[in-house]
C-alpha cells in the first residue's frame, strides 16, 4: 500500500478581536505594538464591544469558514487539505497556529487572508507574521500566499446580489435613485506615497460592481479612520453622508466592499454610529450583509484556492 499523501495546509488569517470585554485592553496592547492605550480609549472601545455582543465575532466566523472550506476542497477526494485559523492580534495567534499545522507534516502551505484587497500594511503584515513564525521554528516547508482576489467574478457577483436584495428595504418608488455608498477601511495616507496598491484595488472592486449595477447612483468613502496623529485616506463616510444629505437624499445603502465578515467596524461603526448620524439628517440608512460563512463565500474561496494551487509548480 502506498503512503497517504501529505496534506496541503491552508492557513486562513484574520485580524482577530477580543474574546471578552476583559480582554479588550490586552488586545489593544497587541494592536498598538506594546504601547499602552489611554484608559478613556480602552473604555470607549470596550463599550463598542459591549453593545455588539460582548466580544469579536471574527474567530467564530473564520473557524466556520475554515471547516466548510476544508470539507468543500476535499469533496472530490483528489487532495487532502487541512484548514487552520490564525489571528494577527489575538488568540490563536498566527505563530501558534503555524506551529500546530507543522504537526501534520504538510507537503506545502498556502496562506490566505480574509480580505480581498492587498495592502502592505494589512496583507503584508500577515505575511510578515508568518515569516517570523517560520524563522522562529526554523521551518522550510514550501509556502505561498494568495495576496489579492479583489475582482474575482464570484466575489463581485455576491456583492451585487446583496446590493440588489438590500435595495428592496427601500420604498419601491425610490429604489432606482438610492445612492450605494461603497466603503473600505481607511489606511494612513502615506500608503499613497509608498505606491501601495490598496486604493487602486479597492477602486477596481467598486468599478467591477458598478459595471453590473446599471444606472444606480454610487459614491465611495473610507471608514473607521485610526486615532493616530497622521492623516488617513478619505473622504470619510461621515463627510460623504453629509454631502448626500445636502444633495437632498433621504435613503442611502452602505456596501462595505473591503470587508468579508462582521466585526466592530460594521456592527458598531456603520450599524450604530453611522446609522444614528444618518437619522439626524433625515436619512434611512441600510447596510448590505457581510458574506460571513455563507455558501457564496465558500464558493469564492474554493475557486481562489484551486486557482492558486493550479498555478503552483511543486
**What's the SSE pattern?**
EHHHEHEHEHEHHEHEHHEH
CATH architecture of the largest domain: 3-Layer(aba) Sandwich
Helix content: 40-55%
Supply the number of helical segments: 12
The top level CATH class name of the largest domain: Alpha Beta
The order of strands across the largest sheet is: 2-1-3-4
Q: Segments where pLDDT lies below 50 for 5+ residues?
A: none
- The total of beta strands comes to 8
**Radius of gyration, Cα only, in angstroms?**
20 Å
Give the count of structural domains.
2
- Amino- and carboxy-terminal Cα gap: 23 Å
Report what the structure shows.
The chain is an alpha/beta fold and 314 residues long. It has two domains: 8-149 and 294-311, Rossmann fold (3-Layer(aba) Sandwich), CATH 3.40.50.1400; 153-287, 3-Layer(aba) Sandwich (Rossmann fold). It has helices at 24-31, 39-50, 58-73, 94-101, 123-137, 153-166, 190-193, 198-213, 237-246, 264-267, 269-280, 295-311, and strands at residues 8-14, 81-87, 108-113, 143-146, 180-185, 218-223, 251-256, 284-287. Strands 2-1-3-4 form a four-stranded parallel sheet, with helices on both faces. Strands 6-5-7-8 form a four-stranded parallel sheet, with helices on both faces. Helix 3 (58-73) crosses helix 12 (295-311) and helix 6 packs antiparallel against helix 12 (295-311).
